[in-house]
Amino acid sequence: TALLLRLYAFQPEISLTPWSKPAPKEEINLDNPPLDLSYQVNTTNIYWQEGVILTLRLKNNSSQIINNIKLNLISRSDSFSLSRLEFSSSQKTSLSGMEIKGFDLLVDELTPGTDREVNLLVTFQKENNKSRVITGRLDSEYKVLGQTIKESIDLADLRVASELETSAAAYYNSPQGDQLGAGPFPPIVSLPTNFWIFFQTDAPADFEDFVMSGRLPSNVEFTGNESLLSGKLTYNSDAKQIIWQVENVSSDDNGYRAGFEVELIPSNDQLGDYAELMHSIRYQAIDYFTGLPVGGNLSSIDTSLKHDAINKGDGKIIDQTSL
């Protein structure tokens, strides 16, 4: 009886805590995503050949590890496709845990509160001339708490500078066959022969402050004769430099050309060779759409007359005994 009373009186302590209420499961607030992704470009006016520096900043705003991060860069332009994605030489911080595959930036993980910054060089391939604006998008995909989250960011539009189609050529006979030059041809040592040189630019877009120039060798002189369809022509006799200037160049007008006459007196040391007529030929202008300077250099011109259909290749210097 005493044993039964003791058993009856025994009241074990039973904890109900584990069964009372399950621990709350952390939820992902998609209105405030765990990954804070932002970007910056070094400029929105670009040369497509040089590309743009895209700086990405990734910050983990959650209390969980974010992993398997993939950022995919996409061009939505029909006129420019992506050519290459690489880490920029301006990158100063560590690239540990990051790699590039194609046009994807892969990041292993971001621990809570961590932020990382990476500078990427993005270059492009020109497909056609339909548009001079590059539109892009950055798609992100990552995992947190076992869930895959995807987001997209529209990137700032990039405005692309146009290219100038510029040429310089010398003629003794015009493309129509008319004789422009004067004096013996092929040129003869110590005797003057005159040629016409033409500067021309065909602009696929609008430009301003167009300047094209070239220098004359010591045995070539500007005669003062010129033919202008546009702009103005000046001659700096001290520098032996001919300068052609056009204030505004429009894509609606293909009549941008300047012609001028030069006189060559070949020297003995040029016998048997082509004689140079102009060197240091340069051009530059401001692209109206982007405000960027555009320019370049052209090859020297000589008596080979590469664009003269009648006399091409026949301009090697001779002496009077060759007549």
What does the average pLDDT come to? Answer: 90
Strand content: over 45%
Largest sheet: 6 strands, antiparallel
Distance between the termini: 151 Å
Rg is: 36 Å
Share in helix: under 10%
Number of helices: 2
Describe this protein's structure.
The structure is a single chain. By secondary structure, the protein is mostly beta strands. Helix content is 4%, strand content 49%. The chain contains 2 helices and 22 strands. The chain has helices at 2-9, 17-20; strands at residues 35-41, 45-46, 52-60, 66-75, 80-87, 98-101, 104-110, 115-126, 133-134, 136-144, 147-154, 158-160, 165-171, 193-202, 207-215, 220-228, 232-236, 241-249, 257-264, 276-287, 293-298, 301-302. Strands 15, 17, 18, 20, 21 and 22 form a 6-stranded antiparallel sheet that branches. A 5-stranded antiparallel sheet has the order 6-7-4-10-11, with no helix packed on it. Strands 1-3-8-5 form a 4-stranded antiparallel sheet, with no helix packed on it. A hairpin with a 2-residue loop joins strand 10 (136-144) and strand 11 (147-154). The longest helix is centred in the first third of the chain and has 8 residues, at 2-9.
